[in-house]
Amino acid sequence: MRALIAAATGLAVALALVLTITAIGSPAGKTSPKPLLTTIPEHP
Q1: In this structure, what are the phi and psi dihedrals at residue 42, rounded to the nearest 5 degrees?
Q2: What span, in angstroms and rounded, lies between the C-alpha atoms of 29 and 27?
Q3: Cα separation values, 44 from 13, 19, 36, 41, Å
Q4: Which terminus of the chain has a smaller tally of CB atoms within 10 A, N or C?
Q5: Closest of 40, 21, 27 to residue 13, by C-alpha
Q6: What is the pLDDT of residue 11?
Q7: What is the pTM of this model?
Q8: What are the φ and ψ backbone dihedral angles of 20, each rounded to 5 degrees?
Q9: What is the C-alpha separation between 19 and 5, in angstroms, rounded?
């Protein structure tokens, strides 16, 4: 029974944290206009 209570408490804390982060929103900032290189450029 203690394990069930601990699991429910942990789940409630995690859910509260997610909802808090969602309510605050993403931090203000801008993304780089340059695309990220995902491959190694070929050498001649």
Answers
A1: -75, 140
A2: 6
A3: 56, 52, 22, 10
A4: C
A5: 21
A6: 97
A7: 0.53
A8: -65, -45
A9: 21
Q: What is the pLDDT of residues 20-44, one digit of tens each?
A: 988 887 767 777 777 777 777 776 6
**DSSP assignments along the chain, one per residue:** -HHHHHHHHHHHHHHHHHHHHHHH-SPP----SSPPP-SPPPP-
Tokens of 41: 């450029």
Torsion sign over Cα 10, 15, 21, 26 = positive
Q: What is the pLDDT of residues 6-24, one digit of tens each?
A: 999 999 999 999 999 888 8
